Amino acid sequence: MQGLSHLMTISCYLLLWAACDSIEGPSGNDLETTFRLTDENGRAQTAFAFKDGIRFHYEIENVSSADQQFIIPDTGPIVTFEVLSGNESFGASDDGVAYALVIVVDTLSSGEKIVHEYSWFSYSERQFLLPGKYTAQAKPRLQFSQTETPGEESIEFEVVCDSSVQNCDTSNVVVITDTPADSLQLDAFALNSAAVTGDSLLLSVSYSGGCKKHVFDLFMTPASFMESYPVQANLILRHGANEDPCDAHITRDLTFDISPIADLFRQSYAPNGIVILNVFEYYENNPGKVLSVTFPIK
């Protein structure tokens, strides 16, 4: 590859794209791609233990006899990786990164290959993926001028519990996310009490059911503290009733590991301090009952 050295102005970029659009019959068999997930040792796999490292590997190879020119719209990599569960995004390789808005043009020579790798924890504020099923996506960021640009690719994978790891449960570790609070609401419940002991949040809730398993997940959203003194964090408790047809009145105690909030506070402010946690009861349109508790970070 000739090196990402040819930088163009926006006007040149537009002129080049006008030329690209005029090319007839671009080939779709000139490039081959490989996308896989690996462990930290490079072994391909689609099941990872909770808190294990996950690496993303993507490559494009020019298998044609002609050199292929391409454009990247900025100084970023050739591909963006993203992890989703359903419609909810759990992070992307662009998180925490700013690219210079400079058009880059380069050439992938015949027989040459471009490789990009990314580690899930290379972003310091990345949260652990809780046990469950996920989709990893590779979204190419470059555009070829004389051949078909590769499309998005997906890999289904899962995170599983390892008996040697504590707090490995889908409903007892807080998830820090920017997902809007309204979209996290699921099934109704009453919030009776809230307290903090060490790095644990203790909640008492009531709901109707009795015939199926009910699951509670805790989210901190937005994924940053509200600036006040002390700083504050909003916590949303999501209740999954699993379409329970029964209506017995059930009261249940829940315990959540909130140490990720302490870790985020230390990264953002200081080794110790205080965070006010605002825990919201279920609501449909506008927030209603909120219980606030003090979380000392030591």
Overall description:
The protein is mainly β and 298 residues long. It is 9% helix and 45% strand. The chain contains 3 helices and 20 strands. The protein has helices at residues 10-21, 181-184, 259-268; strands spanning 6-8, 31-38, 47-49, 55-62, 68-72, 79-85, 88-92, 103-108, 113-119, 132-140, 143-144, 153-160, 175-176, 190-197, 200-209, 215-220, 231-240, 248-257, 273-280, 290-297. The strands form 5 sheets. It has a 5-stranded mixed β-sheet with strand order 3-12-10-6-7, with no helix packed on it. Strands 13-16-17-19-20 form a 5-stranded mixed β-sheet. A hairpin with a 2-residue loop joins strand 6 (79-85) and strand 7 (88-92).
Instruction: Report the structural category.
Output: mainly beta
Fourth-tier CATH superfamily name of the largest domain: Intracellular proteinase inhibitor BsuPI
User: What count of structural domains?
Assistant: 2
Residue windows where pLDDT falls under 50 for at least 5 positions:
1-27
Helix content: under 10%
| Strand order within the widest beta sheet | 3-12-10-6-7
